[in-house]
Amino acid sequence: MSFRFYTNVISQASRNFAAGLFITGLLLIGFGFLVYILRDLFAILFSIIFCVAGFGCGVTAVKIFLAQRKLDKMDSDDGTTGYRRNVQIHSEESYEREI
Predict the structure, then answer these.
(1) Three-class secondary structure of residue 5 per DSSP
(2) pLDDT tens, 67-82?
(3) Which residue of 36, 40, 69, 82 is surrounded by the most CB atoms within 10 Å?
């Protein structure tokens, strides 16, 4: 008579994990062969991706610089609350209603 310290659920989970790991390994092997065979195509694709990402970073940086410049201009023009022109703060003494 043998004792089982694990249930059928653990056995099924380990089989599913092994199957997923096997499929992932096969996909990685296939991708490796594709990169080896089509290295020129992948080099062009990755260079396009890097150029687009670099252009996007540059545009975002310029937008941040322009926004900061605008905030600095507004702050230097008014001096006190240039960026809070239409903001009003309301405070009440008590937030609880009396019963």
Answers:
(1) coil
(2) 888 888 876 665 555 5
(3) 82
